[in-house]
């Protein structure tokens, strides 16, 4: 009998090629969820609220004088003061164009800081596809914010808490690289120096960031000394550096002056009873907000989609949290809740409430902790319960990705959807009216008439106001500063 050879035709497209195509399509779609925020930067502008007052102070006394005077009279955030003094667009020509460049730079810088962290983790094969993971995390951050405008489109905002989160991410990257034994001693020392610089700069951006850094570095110091790690003296150096920087920032005379304006004259800020009550309120407020943030379908779907990008090889598990046990997972969650509560403590101590800006900053730390905790918990639960294994199947991942994108592009509360609507319908007209208001003030300077500042939109037109851009109302002092910037001495604020 003759042997019949059966020819098996090779598939036209290999599974690897299919996976690459699917991955590219997924990354393009994720990029489209971020695109409108970049395009909206074309419609950002110097805000009457605070920006002109800051610019006037810098132009009147000089940049160095502004830093020193503000440190002694209003704020000890030395990094924020330096950024404001030297980067305030209104102190340069083409201020409106620089405002747009600044917004784009902050958005791209924030994404780059996420990518830099995941790229470092990818070196140990703990993260797959760091670029796609960065896009996903950035999309979750943008859509989890209650107000995007102050974070990316307001100069006085992003020089404080947004810059602080970026520096915090850079510090995490340096700390992770510092512990990678496959790097040379020179490289690891280089990242240690980077961590020192990030600590100094981060402390001076925002009090919430200052406390987050202290919580992270003190924990790292305790863990490394307990384990007698080779980097424990570096951690000690970083903690001492944080302590010195924090003392310089918090002891600024301007901090007490600022707190005095928010407190009745008979209130003792550092009374024991007030501190204890504020601590309990911090824990309660933070626990409530954590429940609110975690009760988000987009975040849950995004977390499920993120899980396949996290490597869970048993042979790679060697660090304190790499082989998780129940008590370690619970300890991690309690550590995060306590740390986030510490971050909002100063706001509650002074104001007995939490500013929206503080919540925006804390949400960034929450998202980092959420992603890390989810990967640790999944590593522990996956071998014990089959349902967690099924979460990685192609069908489940496809359904979750489709649902994630549908909510992003079509959800009424999705910031991505709102950003596209702003881009198409609201932002262009609002920008033109804002520009015309500025031109009218310049015309008042040339004609010598009384300047008039009216709301960009009347009450019946409030539906035309952009939801993503920074459009916070201004007060009389802001109006006076706006007029003085353009050389107008008399100004009338109109509703």
In brief:
By secondary structure, the chain is mainly α. Helices cover about 70% and strands about 0% of the residues.
Q: Layout of SSEs?
A:
Blueprint (H helix, E strand, L loop, with lengths): L14 H25 L11 H11 L1 H11 L4 H10 L7 H28 L7 H15 L4 H4 L2 H24 L6 H19 L3 H21 L4 H19 L2 H10 L9 H23 L2 H10 L19 H26 L4 H26 L4 H5 L3 H17 L4 H33 L3 E4 L21 H10 L5 E4 L1
Parallel strand pairs: 1-2
Helix pairs in contact: 1-6, 1-18, 1-19, 2-3, 2-20, 3-4, 3-12, 4-8, 5-6, 5-8, 6-14, 8-9, 8-10, 8-16, 9-11, 10-11, 10-15, 13-15, 14-18, 15-16
Shape designation: globular
| Strand portion | under 5%
Domain count, please report it: 2
Structural class: mainly alpha
Amino-to-carboxy terminus distance: 100 Å
> What would the average pLDDT be, to the nearest integer?
88
Give the count of helical stretches: 20
Secondary-structure element series: HHHHHHHHHHHHHHHHHHHEHE
Number of strands: 2
Computed over alpha carbons, the radius of gyration is 25 Å
- Report the major sheet: 2 strands, parallel
Protein name: Glycosyltransferase RgtA/B/C/D-like domain-containing protein
Pfam families: DUF6056
InterPro entries: DUF6056
Keywords: Membrane, Transmembrane, Transmembrane helix
């Amino acid at each position: 009998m003759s042997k019949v050879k059966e020819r098996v035709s090779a598939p036209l497209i290999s599974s690897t090629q299919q996976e690459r195509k699917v991955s590219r399509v997924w990354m393009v779609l994720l990029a489209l969820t971020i695109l409108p925020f970049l395009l909206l930067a074309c419609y950002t502008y110097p805000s009457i609220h605070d920006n002109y007052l800051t610019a006037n102070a810098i132009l009147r006394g000089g940049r160095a004088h502004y830093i020193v005077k503000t440190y002694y009279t209003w704020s000890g955030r030395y990094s924020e003061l330096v950024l404001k003094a030297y980067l305030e667009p209104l102190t340069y020509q083409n201020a409106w164009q620089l405002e747009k460049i600044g917004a784009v730079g902050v958005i791209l810088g924030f994404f780059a800081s996420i990518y830099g962290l995941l790229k470092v983790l990818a070196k140990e094969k703990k993260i797959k596809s760091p670029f796609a993971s960065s896009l996903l995390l950035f999309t979750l951050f943008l859509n989890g914010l209650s107000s995007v405008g102050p974070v990316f489109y307001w100069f006085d905002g992003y020089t404080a808490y947004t810059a602080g989160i970026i520096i915090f991410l850079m510090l995490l990257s340096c700390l992770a690289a510092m512990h990678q034994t496959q790097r040379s001693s020179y490289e690891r020392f280089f990242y240690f120096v980077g961590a020192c610089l990030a600590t100094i700069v981060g402390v001076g951006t925002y009090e919430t960031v200052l406390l987050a850094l202290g919580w992270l570095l003190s924990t790292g110091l305790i863990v490394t000394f307990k384990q007698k790690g080779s980097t424990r003296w570096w951690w000690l150096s970083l903690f001492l550096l944080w302590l010195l920087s924090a003392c310089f920032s918090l002891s600024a005379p301007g901090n007490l002056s600022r707190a005095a304006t928010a407190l009745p004259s008979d209130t003792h800020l550092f009374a024991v009873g007030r501190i204890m009550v504020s601590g309990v309120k911090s824990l309660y407020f933070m626990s409530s907000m954590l429940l609110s943030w975690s009760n988000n379908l987009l975040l849950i779907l995004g977390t499920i989609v993120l899980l396949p990008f996290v490597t869970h090889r048993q042979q790679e598990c060697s660090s304190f949290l790499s082989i998780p046990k129940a008590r370690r997972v619970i300890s991690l969650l309690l550590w995060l809740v306590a740390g986030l509560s510490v971050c909002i403590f100063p706001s509650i101590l002074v104001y007995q409430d939490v500013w929206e800006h503080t919540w925006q900053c804390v949400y960034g730390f929450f998202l980092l902790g959420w992603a890390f905790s989810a990967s640790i918990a999944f590593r522990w639960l996956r071998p014990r319960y089959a349902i967690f294994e099924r979460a990685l199947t192609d069908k489940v991942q496809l359904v979750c990705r489709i649902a994630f994108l549908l909510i992003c592009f079509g959800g009424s509360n999705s910031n991505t959807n709102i950003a596209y609507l702003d881009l198409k319908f609201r932002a262009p007209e609002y920008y033109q009216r804002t520009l015309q208001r500025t031109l009218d003030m310049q015309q008042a300077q040339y004609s010598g008439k009384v300047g008039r500042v009216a709301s960009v939109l009347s009450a019946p037109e409030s539906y035309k106001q952009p939801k993503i851009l920074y459009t916070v109302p201004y007060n009389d002092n802001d109006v006076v500063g706006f007029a003085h910037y353009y050389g107008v001495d008399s100004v009338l604020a109109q509703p």
